[in-house]
From TrEMBL, chain B:
Bias (Pro residues): 333-345
Record InterPro entries: ABC_transp_permease
Pfam families attached to this UniProt entry: BPD_transp_2 (PF02653)
Region span, Disordered: 332-361
UniProt entry tagged with the keyword Metal-binding: no
Protein's cellular compartments: Cell membrane
Top-rank taxon, per record: Bacteria
Protein name as catalogued: ABC transporter permease
Species of origin: Subtercola vilae
Keyword Transmembrane: yes
Amino acid sequence: MNTLHDTTATRSATLEMSHISKFYAGVAALTDVSVEIRPGEVHAILGENGAGKSTLMNIASGSTPPSAGSILMNGESYDSLTPTLAGTLGVAIVHQHPAVLGDMTVEENLRVALPDSVFADGSNDEVARALLNGVGLDAHLKDRVETLTLAQKHLLEIAKAFARHPRLLILDEPTAPLGREAVDLLFGRVREAVAAGTSVVYITHRLAEVRELADRVTVLRDGRVRGTAVVDEITDDELLALIVGRKLESTFPPKSLLPLDTEVNFDVASISGPGFVDVSIAGRRGEIIGVAGVVGNGQSELLRALAGLENFEGEVSVGGTSYTPRDLLHRAAFMPADRHREGLMMSLSVRENAAVSALKKFTSTYLVSRSKELDAVSTSLTELSVKAPSLDAPVGALSGGNQQKVVISRALLSEPVLLIADEPTQGVDVGARVEIYRILREASESGIPVIIASSDAKELEGLCDRVIVMSRGHVVATLSGDQITEEIIVSAAVSSTTQSIQVGTGKSTVKRSTGVRRFLQGDYAPSALLVAVIILLGAYVLTQNPQYLGSFNIFSMLMTACGLGAIAMGQTIALLLGGIDLSVGPLAGFLVVIASYFINDGASTGTIVLGLALMVVAAIVVGLVNGVLIRYLKFTPIAATLTLYIALGGFAFLLRDTQGGYISTDFVTNLSSTVGPVPVAFIALVVIALVAEYFLRKRRWGWNLRAVGSNEESARSVGVSINRTVILGYILVSLFVFLGAVILMTQIGIGDPAAGPSYTLTSITAVVLGGTSLLGGRGTFIGSLLGAVLLTQVLNATTVLGLGSVFQYVFQGLLILVAAIVYSVARSRKRRAAEQL
Amino acid sequence: MVDALARNAPALTSARFSVSKGLITVGSATVILFLISGVLAPSSISGTSLSGMLPIACVLAVAGLGQMLVVQQGGIDLSVPGMISLTAVIVTHNPDGNDALLLPAIALALVFAVVAGFANGLMIGSLRLNPIIATLGTNALLYGADLAISGGRPRITTKLMQTISGGQTFGIPNAVFFALGVLIVVSVLVKKTVAGRRFEAVGANPEAARAIGLRVRSHQTLAYVWAQLLYCLAGIMIAGITAQPSAFEGDKFLLPSVAVVVLGGTSLLGGRGFPLATLIAAVFLQQLTQFVITLGVSTAIQTLVQAAALAVGVSLYTVNWRAVFARFSRTPSVPPPPTAAPPAPSSLENTTPAAASADAV
């Protein structure tokens, strides 16, 4: 490694970031940071949480633009990068949270994220297999990523990064979920890549890993570079000194001065839960208890358990009373780290948020008393000096600090037995921090046990009377009194060598999936089920009525299924995208009305072609409008396509207010030609479904489509253009509807403005029967076509068996509900099974 | 210093009555519509015309308020037509003109409503089915019951029924009193009771609601039950208003029930509901129909105006028009360099995911 290092000084740097600054709403995340990454070196970036490490690397990989400074790569200077540009420049990043697409298979995740050139040398399977073997990921290529463990997902991310043969590889805390065996393999791969000339940026909290792997190290603190050194020339103590020692920017309230015999009012005796084991804490009245550690080592899980949001084993008692998780859910007040997701109801007002946990206290007779509520809420908020335009302002419009005070106000108003705060000052400005510290101290003095988790050791040093330090789910140190210093906390956290409690090597714990299981978890299981049901139902009806398989019945059933099937295949695309298209029915009706003006008896071929062309154009315009409303005007898919649903109904009636315009009999006859009893149109549709299926599974178009529906954020980060995919998707929906409309012309035979709308709900029914998920990301065209066939068959059977319309409705309702429940239960069981691994 | 700050902070106030953006929008649109109606087609606001329009608007309002409760929980209910049609059929077929049998018929309809509501609620709240699928299935089953009872043939409403829901009191259609009653009950229950306030909180952010110990599933489930009861009432009303309700009387209320909720300003993503604005939106849509009919233009125009109203209504909430206008008024004077001025779409794209989703309707 040293020899490499010596020769690199003469070559130009792989990446040179000069004077980079980044501000978020005026707050500096990075100030004047300059880093140079040389070819063939492993460059570790060290620093506490919030020091700016991830921000710096997001700038390098193009996902965040810097506020100032420049980036020099390959001899060219850039003000900022985009993910695509960074990709072409040879940057690959492995994020802390894997950006994988759970609904797609392992192989598809590789294909959608990597350029085709990666798969050019050799068969796709072989290349993909080799990529997985390279990182020791022992999963089947056809496994759905949702069923992998967290460690396996991480390995998949790492495999994607290595596959690009990057010039610069950025690894953001890659070892957190991995076991020792996987870590060794990863380090081996990193060394190989480095030997081949790749530069590696390695973000970590662990000094041991820096020693093991890195050539040079840069330490960040408070968004500034504290120093860069060659690893072999700096001691652990020197590194620690660079990491800690942050300037105290807030003042803390004095700590409690308690007589030694103060009662213990909070006692946690050896509790274990998901993500933490054997944690014991005891606190006396008036003490604030801190939970320290590198983010993601079980602190949040511990706090969630204490708040009653996760189950735990062991005993928690407050003031001598023992509490179960269920009690705690109602009696403990929890301040979550992610205020947006689970802290506040952002669209509701300040008053409503503050009052929501204490509403019962504000009632007079049966109703919430306005005056009681206002008195209590405004007193509380004024005490906490919340600054807001008024109590009616939406809480989302407040600054982070004021939002957090509203959370505290809500907690205090509910008179909790326990106050639990996860990162209480995250995203809070300095002034408000001081006040939040004061408020927490006052709550503690009033006798409510206060437990705080923070990744800022300085904060815990200033605030807490007792601190436990966690690493990989275990308590590795319990500190009190003068022991509570940033140095001791950080050193306990970063020097720990405990192993992850969910050791996932990507190998040992997981049984290799069998072919049968993969099929059952795959997208085609519902199709197989449908085929079986179709055959059984057909056989039963045949025993009741021998005319059932008569060629006229077969023909008319398949023709009906054909029209519905084409529309359902369009609907499938909308659902795969995670959306829905309510406008398909009226669009089909509208297109038939257009046709009724052109495709008549005696019309010239030119007129007929013109009519078909106009139908296609109308379909494309409708798809475009749907897509634009959804992507650019931020309509929900329901609102956008509902608008088009109503409008298209209007246009259909505008063209024809009553039925009229018979469709050319020649046209109908041609489209109704058959092979035996089977319509040619149906055979054509099956072929189209198979082709569409091929594109969905094996082509970038299909991967992009399903990636967007599976997880929009992850899709964006693997480089899928969301807007283009969605808008093209909705245009394709409309084109399938055009196909359906052509078939409908033969069945309706006349321009009928009222014929379309019912197809919307029927198409959704067919698609759901086919096993396509309304959550997006998974589904098949074949399934939708089969769903259309089954639906038509059931309706036909009620007629053939003489059951009447009641049964038509009942069967249709039962079919969709049973299918939805079966698929949904099967899926949630699978997911639970995956989580237990 | 901290204490001084606390003392100096101005006391926070709360307005006794707040007027939502949705209420202003839909309210002024309705006023303008009536003004235009008065100028262009005076007969569309005549007494007879209004007494024909208002009852239907009120049925729509009641169904819309039910839909609103479901939408507040981030759901959507497609079983509106099934329940309205079934109720109208039960209260006309079972009594078959005999007033004495009316009450048991209404009780039976209520039983259906409760069962259907719990079926929807449990499938969606507990089994986590998609609301579109679950309510679509329930709707088909309700229509099965509808046809089993009616055989598809209409019967005449009883006299009592016609007097109660189709009649007038002090020259005002009784349906108006029903709708106002429902409006008051829904408003008080949602805005003034502990359960109602929690209900809105659950709708606004189920995860945060769970974190403070609220019973998320119960609230989600009950939304569908309350909604069915309101559809049932709407069915009873329509049975009295139309002398001979068909077996498919509810069909025409499905899409409008969603449209009035959206026009009223309730987000399809859930959260706060706006009952008064929803009711006014129902009057707006129905008067629009009346106006267009009086003008004598084709119903197609009316449908198109409805679609346009919906599009404009939604985009009022989703698009930050102030920012759009600001850029358009700035652009001519200072042509910015191409890098500094992204085209309109991308500037919308750049909103944070949280803000974007909160705004999306």
